[in-house]
């Protein structure tokens, strides 16, 4: 589910970048939202690793 959200957000970001440019407020906001999703995945992976004691 999270991977689908990430892919959709990534596509949205590229569309915005193509239309408005990479530094436009819309693109930057979308990029930050994508970062939040990616951070969620990283947090989950770190938590799973910590629980395994690796």
UniProtKB/TrEMBL annotation:
<dbReference type="GO" id="GO:0046983">
    <property type="term" value="F:protein dimerization activity"/>
</dbReference>
<protein>
    <recommendedName>
        <fullName>Spo0E like sporulation regulatory protein</fullName>
    </recommendedName>
</protein>
<dbReference type="InterPro" id="IPR018540">
    <property type="entry name" value="Spo0E-like"/>
</dbReference>
<dbReference type="InterPro" id="IPR036638">
    <property type="entry name" value="HLH_DNA-bd_sf"/>
</dbReference>
<dbReference type="InterPro" id="IPR053028">
    <property type="entry name" value="Spo0E-like_phosphatase"/>
</dbReference>
<dbReference type="GO" id="GO:0043937">
    <property type="term" value="P:regulation of sporulation"/>
</dbReference>
<dbReference type="Pfam" id="PF09388">
    <property type="entry name" value="SpoOE-like"/>
</dbReference>
<dbReference type="InterPro" id="IPR037208">
    <property type="entry name" value="Spo0E-like_sf"/>
</dbReference>
